[in-house]
Automatic annotation (TrEMBL):
PANTHER family: UBIQUITIN-CONJUGATING ENZYME E2
Protein name: UBE2F isoform 18
Family the UniProt entry places it in: Belongs to the ubiquitin-conjugating enzyme family.
GO terms classed as biological process: protein neddylation; protein polyubiquitination
Subunit details: Interacts with UBA3 and RBX2. Interacts (N-terminally acetylated form) with (via DCUN1 domain) DCUN1D1, DCUN1D2, DCUN1D3, DCUN1D4 and DCUN1D5.
One example GO MF annotation: ubiquitin conjugating enzyme activity
Function: Accepts the ubiquitin-like protein NEDD8 from the UBA3-NAE1 E1 complex and catalyzes its covalent attachment to other proteins. Together with the E3 ubiquitin ligase RNF7/RBX2, specifically neddylates cullin-5 (CUL5). Does not neddylate CUL1, CUL2, CUL3, CUL4A or CUL4B. Mediates neddylation of the CUL9-RBX1 complex.
Amino acid sequence: MLTLASKLKRDDGLKGSRTAATASDSTRRVSVRDKLLVKDEGYYQGGKFQFETEVPDAYNMVPPKVKCLTKIWHPNITETGEICLSLLREHSIDGTGWAPTRTLKDVVWGLNSLFTDLLNFDDPLNIEAAEHHLRDKED
């Protein structure tokens, strides 16, 4: 995983699809789409969730950007797909944010934990979903 960004850059160079000016542009992003999670337990049992992951050129010094493409009612995911997961933050107060030693596999495990044990009701991103869950778990 440490070499993912350099491999993607190298593949771009082999295709010759970019000029030298754009290849050195640090704002260029590589986008990867994949179905990451199929839940077989908990509130989201049977659900299939698709995420978009953007791996920046500065990866793994900075975290990837992840967005949930599947419409979901979740305390830590907004209706527009923004995700509240500490390991996706470049700077985190509790020390659980992104570090160069983290990998994309850690991101997948973190996303998986949002559907099992990391439902955050103390500081939810989607307040309505958190209140709804606390009010009526069965619904």
